[in-house]
């Protein structure tokens, strides 16, 4: 009887000693780094089996979460839509082609929110991107040609009305839309709504640099003022595009023997770009198109209620259709590589499926309902976008850990864990935890903005117990590498 009474007490003392050691070690670790010591830290670490808090610091204070926002968005998308959900991209006309293959009127390329009309390999992996970024559009063009279409007497319309036209979220920087980080949000997404502008030196000094596009669609009006120079040294290439403008100016110098530079740039109006690309592909197949590429949007002011709407049929004759891969494949991409656009599309996909209107407002209402199911109190999470690019987002470490516990205990656990980056192996954690032998036991989502760093997820300890943790750091004024080194060491301490 005495032995049986002592054993639980011994386990309790061991647990308390372990918790105290972890707390002291984390406190010393943060205090030892000048960059970390002056930053604002929010941490909660919880044993998932018992619910015991192993360590916390400012768990109920608000932090800008950066891409930890994606944990909320993708958890809701997985829960609401399921892993087998698919997206449809269609080509519609008002009337079928005549006996001569002629279509009288416009041809509509109707986006259904598919995030992966691109060259990205699916399923997610380390394979390089070698495919044609317009392959899905070319497949649709082939289907149109197979229907016997020879001529289109009308425009090619890029129709992204499946979602409300809200291309940018509150709190985004004015510079964000210029790059892939803030590519416009559209139900008709091609190549992540980005293109690559490659700058290579000209044939001889004094000549303009050579520019090329991938995908090879001439969309912007390019003003090339980059000169080839004989001198060795780094290239100095700059670019400018005012938001809303179709004029893209590049200038600077590039040495004659320079290997060149690839600039990944956002597309101003993705639906218009998609229409132009499809028009080009149809013409390459010998189909005559008399009209131009145009875009059709659903503007917010044209929607009676941005939070819900009745279901409405989309009239038209279907000539072609592309069906996406199962949604779990994209959710893995979204979290592992921290793809901003895909997270924004996920928010709108849930809104469209559940409320018949693909708006931010409808997505926000769905998020509120989801957070209530998770058990997160109103007011402890404020999200103004789905990706975390907005600095208006605020969460607490306690709320993040509640989400992690909810998903870990749910029937979606296996799929959910498969979506997160794995330490030292893939995604945004591929190059982290280099000196941690058990790095692959860490499944966590990163987050990064200027003066913001985040890491939240799970760690499987050496005793087989799983821990949920959220580490949010704001207002540091030093090296991000220093902050990440401390965060990674915290994970090592959890494992130990």
List the helices and strands and how they pair.
Blueprint lengths: L1 H31 L1 H4 L2 E8 L5 E5 L11 H13 L6 E6 L8 E3 L2 E4 L24 H12 L4 E3 L2 E4 L34 E7 L9 E5 L6 E9 L6 E5 L6 E9 L5 E6 L3 H15 L3 E2 L3 E4 L20 E7 L3 H11 L2 H16 L4 H15 L6 E2 L11 E2 L1 H13 L3 H7 L22 E8 L2 E9 L5 E9 L5 H16 L1
Helix pairs in contact: 1-11, 3-6, 3-7, 4-5, 6-7, 7-8
Brief write-up:
The chain is of the alpha/beta class and 496 residues long. The chain has helices at residues 2-32, 34-37, 69-81, 135-146, 270-284, 327-337, 340-355, 360-374, 397-409, 413-419, 480-495, and strands at 40-47, 53-57, 88-93, 102-104, 107-110, 151-153, 156-159, 194-200, 210-214, 221-229, 236-240, 247-255, 261-266, 288-289, 293-296, 317-323, 381-382, 394-395, 442-449, 452-460, 466-474.
């Amino acid at each position: 009887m005495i032995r049986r009474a002592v054993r639980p007490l011994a386990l309790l003392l061991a647990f308390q000693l372990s918790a105290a050691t972890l707390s002291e070690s984390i406190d010393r670790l943060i205090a030892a780094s000048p960059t970390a010591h002056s930053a604002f830290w929010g941490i909660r670490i919880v044993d998932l089996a018992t619910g015991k808090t192993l360590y916390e610091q400012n768990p109920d204070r608000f932090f800008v979460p950066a891409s930890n926002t994606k944990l909320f968005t993708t958890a809701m998308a997985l829960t609401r839509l399921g892993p087998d959900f698919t997206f449809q991209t269609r080509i519609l006309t008002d009337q079928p082609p005549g006996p001569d293959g002629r279509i009288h009127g416009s041809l509509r390329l109707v986006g259904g929110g598919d995030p992966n009309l691109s060259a990205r390999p699916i399923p997610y992996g380390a394979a390089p991107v070698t495919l044609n970024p317009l392959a899905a559009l070319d497949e649709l063009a082939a289907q149109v040609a197979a229907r016997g279409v020879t001529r289109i007497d009308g425009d090619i319309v890029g129709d992204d009305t499946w979602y409300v036209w809200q291309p940018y979220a509150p709190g985004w920087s004015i510079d964000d839309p210029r790059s892939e980080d803030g590519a416009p949000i559209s139900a008709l997404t091609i190549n992540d709504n980005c293109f690559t502008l490659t700058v290579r030196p000209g044939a001889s000094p004094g000549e303009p640099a050579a520019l090329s596009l991938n995908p090879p669609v001439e969309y912007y009006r390019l003003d090339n003022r980059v000169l080839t120079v004989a001198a060795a040294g780094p290239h100095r290439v700059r670019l400018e595009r005012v938001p809303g403008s179709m004029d893209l100016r590049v200038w600077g110098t590039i040495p004659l023997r320079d290997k060149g530079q690839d600039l990944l740039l956002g597309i101003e109006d993705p639906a218009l770009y998609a229409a132009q690309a499809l028009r080009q592909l149809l013409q390459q197949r010998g189909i005559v198109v008399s009209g131009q590429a145009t875009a059709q949007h659903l503007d917010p002011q044209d929607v009676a209620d941005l939070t819900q709407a009745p279901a409405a049929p989309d009239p038209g004759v279907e000539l072609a259709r592309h069906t996406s891969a199962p949604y779990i494949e994209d959710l893995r991409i979204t979290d592992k590589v921290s793809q901003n656009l895909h997270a924004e599309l996920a928010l709108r996909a849930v809104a469209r499926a559940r409320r018949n209107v693909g708006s931010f407002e409808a997505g926000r209402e769905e998020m509120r309902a989801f957070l209530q199911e998770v058990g997160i109190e109103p007011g402890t999470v404020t999200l103004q976008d789905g990706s975390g690019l907005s600095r208006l987002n605020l969460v607490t470490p306690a709320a993040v850990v509640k989400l992690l516990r909810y998903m870990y205990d749910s029937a979606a656990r296996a799929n959910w864990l498969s979506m997160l980056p794995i330490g030292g192996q893939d995604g945004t954690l591929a190059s982290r935890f280099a000196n941690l032998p058990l790095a692959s036991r860490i499944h966590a989502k990163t987050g990064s903005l200027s003066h913001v760093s985040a890491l939240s997820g799970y760690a499987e300890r050496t005793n087989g117990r799983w821990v949920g943790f959220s580490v949010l750091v704001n207002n540091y004024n030093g090296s991000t590498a220093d902050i990440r080194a401390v965060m990674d060491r915290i994970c090592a301490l959890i494992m130990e």
